[in-house]
Amino acid sequence: MQRLIDHEVLQMAMLQWLGSKRFLGSLAFGEGTMLRLCHELPRYSQDMDFWFFKEEDYEHFYHRLYDALAQDHDVTSAQNNSYSILVEVRRKKRTAKLKIEIHKALALPGTSEEKIAFSPHFPTQVLVRAFTLSQMLKNKVLALIDRGEIQDAFDLEFLVRKGVALNLSERQRGKLINRLQGLRKEDFEVKLGSILLPEVRDYYNQQGFADLEKKLSFEQCKK
């Protein structure tokens, strides 16, 4: 657990650094790490994902980011491919690495908002632009259907419990239910259990995503 806490401290430090270097003004924060740091998602997350909020020259942005990172971090990997900018950094050699992906897509108007990122393990809060919970639900529905990862199912249930409306087609509901029913005991105990906060781990090991399945089945019946 301490390893996960230390990694979260590294994520917060990176957000603070990106803000101090004026990179955050062009980016929208998303995925599980955003839900964790901005909405207290009760699981830890490894990578940091961003989308562009403002139009940028991707080539220029990449080189500006790389040069700035290289001055203050050990850059272990950097790629500027067709779909995203990928960098992997660490504070110094032989310490934990942090992967950052900046997707080369523009966040649509109305899909992001200003939020405060914070952690109980980090002394400073950071102002970010993050995807709205409604947009995150749409993203997580597509991710769970496409990848079938248990982390996406956990995040989707979290969003539904936060009161975000599903508004799904019957086809989407059916695919989501199939994905949930295909999860194994090992997925809960190992994949999910290793990143959950201790206070919810036993619940998910015993109950799985029963609440989310009921919600999806109920909405399907209403149709």
Question: Overview of this structure, please?
Answer:
Strand 4 (84-90) and strand 5 (98-106) form a beta hairpin. The strands form 2 sheets. The protein has a 5-stranded mixed β-sheet. Strands 6-7 form a two-stranded antiparallel ribbon. By secondary structure, the protein is an alpha+beta fold. Helices cover 51% and strands 20% of the residues. The longest helix has 19 residues, at 2-20. The N and C termini lie far apart (43 Å). Helix 4 packs antiparallel against helix 5 and helix 6 (170-181) packs antiparallel against helix 9. The protein folds into 2 domains: 2-131, Beta Polymerase, domain 2 (2-Layer Sandwich); 135-222, no CATH class. It has 9 helices and 7 strands.
